[in-house]
Amino acid sequence: MDTHPSTRYHSPLVRRFNRVTRWFNRVGLRRVDLSADGLLARARKETGLDRFGDESFLPALRVLLDALEQEAKLNPFGRFIAQGRILRSLKNRLWANACFEAHPEIRQRKIAAPIVIIGPHRSGTTRMQRMLAADTRLAHLKTWEGFNPAPRPGWPEEGDTARRDEIRHMLQGAPQVYPGAFTAHPMDADWPEEEMLLLNHAFCSFSFFGAYTLPGYYRWFLEADKTAAYRDMADLMRLISWSRGDPEDRRWILKNPQHMLDLDLLLRTFPDAKLAFTHRDPLKTVGSVMSLMWRYTVQHTDAPCRAPVRDVWLDFCEQMARRSIRAREAIPPSQQLDVQYEDMNRDWRGTMGRVYDFAGLDFTAEAENALGGWLAESRREGRHEGHSYALEDFGATRDEVDARMGFYRERYAIPYEGGKG
């Protein structure tokens, strides 16, 4: 396992940012502020709004900020990114609350029988969601909407274009800042993305310990009551569909591995949801997610971070699988479907036909052509090729992963990819 400082892996842009910022710090420029009071005040000043509405997000925010200061060993770039993403979320909360106050009917909108794709990270959830999103009968979260979900009161009609362009510009430069991350999980402002982005605005999401070394936040996250975060997520979905002008009966496609941890809460939020569970060889999913999360974390710190990434993500993969298995025992069979990664590779039409039948949707010729078109374009552009990873890079072994995840493999009869050897 590599124990070299993370500076060895910094992208040229991150190196330059850190060098310049440290010079300014030496001549008296104050460090990036990550205090709760400072961030809340700045969000209010920049939006001109005072009221966040329900402030149940504050405890999670304070836990996160404390962990960022005490545990993450942030370099200047890491502090800058942390501040920016937290400030964006606080501003969107202010804008969203202004919309809810002006239009209380938004929170009364129905979210009918969403199709929720759930499975370990790197198990094909993104592929299934983006294929389904090609069916125009279904609603999905666009990446720019996830980062900027709230319309901005008082902005001109082209305000939605400005919200989108902010994220489009951000994503254009991201592959150069985080080498390899966007090979593993390509993103575009207009592509479908998971509602993790909405949970981020409640500061109760796996993405934080996926981008920073935060063992304390991670331990808190495992046991935290996420009721308020899920309520906020659903309200933001209502706000997004309202701002689009979507009919209330247009069904959503959701996907987020985090739901494995809180299936009971997911179903309290969406009682009639249809849950499609994806399964893939843990030797592949665990190694791949460690690699992906390290590619973000390594740019935000100067300290070695492979071991912390390994410890958190091997444990998180196990915790999600164990809790999901327990929770599924109480869910009616009519609300659950299991999909093997290998089945999607071998026969995507037959597998997606099962998904449509399970969801109560007609798998029309138009839908099949749309899904097939997305898959062909993805393959043609090589969107999911080139991500190399190895468990050994993180000091993990196949035997260790098998020992910790064998119960999950056995429960769902998950084959080894390419044979055990």
Structural overview:
With 421 residues, the protein is mostly helical. The chain has a single domain (6-411), classed as P-loop containing nucleotide triphosphate hydrolases (Rossmann fold), CATH 3.40.50.300. The protein contains 18 helices and four strands. It has a four-stranded parallel beta sheet with strand order 2-1-3-4. Helix 2 crosses helix 4 (76-102), helix 5 (125-132) crosses helix 17 and helix 13 crosses helix 14. The chain starts with 11 loop residues before the first helix and ends in a 10-residue tail after the last helix. The mean pLDDT is 94.
Q: What does the secondary structure layout of this molecule look like, with pairings?
A:
Elements: H1 12-26, H2 36-47, H3 58-70, H4 76-102, E1 115-118, H5 125-132, H6 143-147, H7 159-177, H8 181-184, H9 196-199, H10 215-223, H11 227-244, E2 253-255, H12 263-269, E3 274-279, H13 282-297, H14 306-328, E4 336-340, H15 341-346, H16 348-359, H17 365-381, H18 398-411
Parallel strand pairs: 1-2, 1-3, 3-4
Helix pairs in contact: 2-4, 5-17, 13-14, 14-18
